[in-house]
Structure formats: C-alpha cells, structure tokens
Amino acid sequence: MAQVLRHIHLPGIVPYSTAARLQESLVSRFLTSKPPSNAPAPPPHIITAQFAPVYTCGRREIGTVSPEQQEHLRANGRADFVEAMRGGQTTFHGPGQLVAYPIIDLRTHKLTPRDYVCLLEKSLIATCAKYGIKAMTTEHTGVWTSPDDKIAAIGVHMRRNITSHGIGLNVGTDLWWFDRIVACGLEGKRTTSFEKQGVVGKSVEEVGTEYVNQIAGRLLAVEDVDSAGQEEVSRYLQA
Amino acid sequence: MASRSSVVRAARQLTSAAVKRPSPFACQQWRRTAQMPRLFTVSAQSKEKKYTEDHEWIEASADGKTYTLGISEYAAKALGDVVYIELPQVDLEVGEGDAIGAVESVKSASDILTPVSGTVAEVNEALEQKPGDINKDPEGEAWIAKITVSGEPAGKLMSEAEYKEFTEEA
C-alpha cells in the first residue's frame, strides 16, 4: 500500500521540549493503533527543526551527569540540559543544526533497527553529496567528512518498532558548543559543519527538505512527501 | 537408604497429583479465562517458550509461577552489537505491556516490554558488565529478567514455529 511521508517542519528556533512533545504525541498515536486496537495506523511522519541551544545526554548516561557538569553545560543559562531516552551519548543541538526525527513503524517499511540506522546514515551522506560535501561512515556511528571530523550525529529510540529521535546535521552550527564536550563519548574527534566545509549560505530548512526527500526515497512503501501546512504546524507549536 | 528416598519421592508425586485434581477454585478460574476471547490455545503446551510480536520471549518455570523473559535471537541479530542493557529493579511491579528495560546497540535504544504482569524476582546482572553477551546466547544464558506472575499472560503470544513464520514475513 502506497503511503505518504508527512513532513512537519517547525519554523524558526524552537525549544527542544516543543519537538519532544510533538514526537511523544505521534509515537502514542502509533502505539495505540497496535493490536488489539483496530484503529488505523497513522502515516509515517518526520519532524524537522532547529533547536535553541541544548545539550542532551543518552539513555545510558541518565543520572550520571553530575550537577557541576550540568552547570558547566548550561553555560550561564545560555543552553539547556536534557536527559533523553535515546541511544548514544551526550551531544549538542542548536541554531544552524538540522534536527530530523522520523516517527515510523519499522515493520511497515520492513526494516530492522540496524537497517534503520543505516538508512539514516545513507540519507545523510546523499544530502551532503547534494551540496558537494563528500561524507562517509566510519567504525563509529554518525556521518563523517574525515575519520576525525563528524558532520552528523545519530541517536534513536524504538518502542514496539516505532521510532523516535533521529539525527542532527550541522549546517551552520556554532562549533564552539562542541568544543566544550566530548561529543558522543569519542575522545580526540572534532565536529564539522557545512560552513566549515566551505558550503555557506544554506538554510536549515532547505537542507531539511532535501534530507526528508532522501529518507522518503529509501523508505519502502513511501511514494511521496506531504508537508504540513502553516495552520497545522502552529497548532502543534501551541499544543 | 535408596529405597526410602524413592518412597518419599513417590509420596511427593502422589501429593502433587492430588493438588492437580480439579478443585472448585481451579474450575472457577477455568470458567473465567474461557470467557475471554482466546487468540491462542493455552493447555499442556503453555510451558513451552512463547514469543511476542515485539521479539521478546517468555518461558514458564515448572510450577508456572515464574516466567523468564529475554529477547529473541532474531532481535539480537537485528539490533547488532549490543553496548548497553538497562535492567529493571528487583521487586518492581510490572503490568503486561510495560517497558521494563532497554537494549542499546548502534546508537539505538529499543525498549523491552513484558508480556506478563507480576513482580520482578530476579535480573541477569551479568549483562550489566557484559552487555555483548546478549548477542551470543539471547535465548539462554543471556536472559533478562525473571518475573513472578500474578496470572497467565493474556496478550498475543506465538509458539516457536509461529514466531519463525512471523519473522520471515518481515
């Protein structure tokens, strides 16, 4: 059965919590449609956004980031600190970074968790290639422009095959934020961005549209992308 | 000595046979479950290993009071190398369908759900130190938790053959 990937772009700079709330409500719509319920499953969704500065830690670090470390991360109130239930370790999201959260049922698209992470990576590499940036995967997850320069991070969560969280791709992110942490627990690695790679003036929104198209093209049973209208988006933002 | 212990064993078998004889309580219980829509047959085979659509397995102990729970070999393979396992707290009360932990591999954390209600009796602490063991023997040594159940599982469960078919469809 042909499906349409619903793309919800949250315009401007939004707090992490706004996207988290939207993501949660979509995940629960998927979960409540599982048997024994007869409710129809919602179509696959993808949320794209740019967050206000926030450090998020992964599930296995919950409770291990000390109050002093959190204080340091908050940089005198300039950034937030959030514990997320996703895989992976501490990372940063902020203005200039594309965040994309696909909310899909892996079973509908016949994907295993490992295939899914691979699909996210391939779509990232193809998006970078579209803008003339050669990117690759290494033994570490995420997408890299060299074995030491990471351009995109991945951290996903699954419950009953329903995905949440996703990727962060640095377009014009202020990389200073990454210098303050050991991103994703990898010592001696750097973070890079489109701008640092010499690709300037691209908006997060246009890169996001490209990424969503790349994802849609790789998802079995998905034939098209349908972008949520302004009215629908402002309803999500108010919720 | 030997003959005496075999007498004891025989006596024990007798008493346990007596316990299994239908009592008014057992009968009542049977009637209650029979009224519910049944998606599968629970009978003599209820002790065999069962699988959920979310790739957990459960297996009842001989007395049917405790279920061992883990993730299937199919799931362990599909996840890839596991780097972290979140186990539930012992004594935690859990309801059917609750997330009781998570398995984390290549940057993805998957929730582990319990198909039975009850109390967590024991967790496989060895997995905290060596989470990668779950890739070696997920349906044996690398079980996740044992749950003292308050009733039989009511949700959809599959036999090994049915589960195999289910995963081949995917």
Average pLDDT reading of chain B: 78
Number of helices of chain A: 6
Portion in helices of chain B? 25-40%
Secondary-structure element pattern of chain B, one letter each: HHEEEHEEEEEHEH
| Rg of chain B, Å, rounded | 19 Å
Q: What can be said about the biggest beta sheet of chain B?
A: 6 strands, antiparallel
Helix content of chain A: 25-40%
Alpha-beta content class of chain A: alpha/beta
From the helix content, strand content and strand pairing of chain B, which structural class follows?
alpha+beta
By oligomeric state, this entry counts as heterodimer
Task: For the record, give the distance between the C-alpha atoms at the N and C termini of chain A, rounded to a whole number.
Answer: 31 Å
| Tally of DSSP β-strands of chain A | 11
What is the string of helix and strand elements of chain A? EHEEHEEEHEEEHEHEH
Q: β content of chain A, as a range?
A: 25-35%
Largest interface: A-B, 26 and 22 residues
Strand content of chain B: 15-25%
Q: Would you tell me the overall average pLDDT of chain A?
A: 92
Low-confidence stretches of chain B: 1-35, 41-45
Can you walk through the features of this model?
The complex is a heterodimer of chains A (239) and B (170). In chain A, strand 3, helix 2 and strand 4 form a beta-alpha-beta unit. Chain A is 29% helix and 29% strand. In chain A, the strands form 2 sheets. In chain A, strands 1, 2, 6, 7, 8, 9, 10 and 11 form an 8-stranded mixed β-sheet that branches. In chain A, strands 4-3-5 form a 3-stranded mixed β-sheet, with no helix packed on it. Chain A is globular. The two termini of chain A are 31 Å apart. In chain A, helix 3 crosses helix 5. Helices cover 31% and strands 25% of the residues of chain B. The longest helix of chain B has 19 residues. Chain B contains 5 helices and 9 strands, in the order ααβββαβββββαβα. Chain B is globular. Chain B starts with a helix and ends with a helix. Classes of the chains: A alpha/beta (239), B alpha+beta (170). The interface between A and B is medium-sized, with 26 and 22 residues.
